[in-house]
Amino acid sequence: MQQMAVMTDNRVIRQEFEQVQGDTKQLPDGVNVSKEARRAISQAASVFVLYATSCANNFAMKAKRKTLNAGDVMSAMEEMEFERFLQPLREALEAYKKGQKGKKEASEQKRKDKEKKSSSTDENDKSRDEEEDEHMDDEQEGENEGEEEDVEN
Prior knowledge:
Layout: H1 2-21, H2 35-62, H3 70-79, H4 86-152
Helix pairs in contact: 2-3, 3-4
């Protein structure tokens, strides 16, 4: 079981490395990453994220904002001399935005369909209610006519 987890971790590390570096530089097949190395990579990633966040926060503060945005992160990457990651980062951000836009559009369409179905159901209910009202009116008129005949006799 533990060996399977190690294989999965190695596969994830290899895939992430390939995404960042492209197909030209990748971990060779058969290379395994030890548990200690994975822990070190994880710690290094945490430190990097905190440092990048701190740098991005400086840009937000200069702009008198409390919220970091993508531009702040891009500027921080430049300041930290990670310019070679800017283009892949922009591409990933664009892909994320497209995915979010697609999700939003799908959600809107689903909401519109639901509203349309609901309004259609409401119209059907109104039609049904109107028919029942007409039917009841007809019955009452029939009863009233019967009473009028009794009064005349």
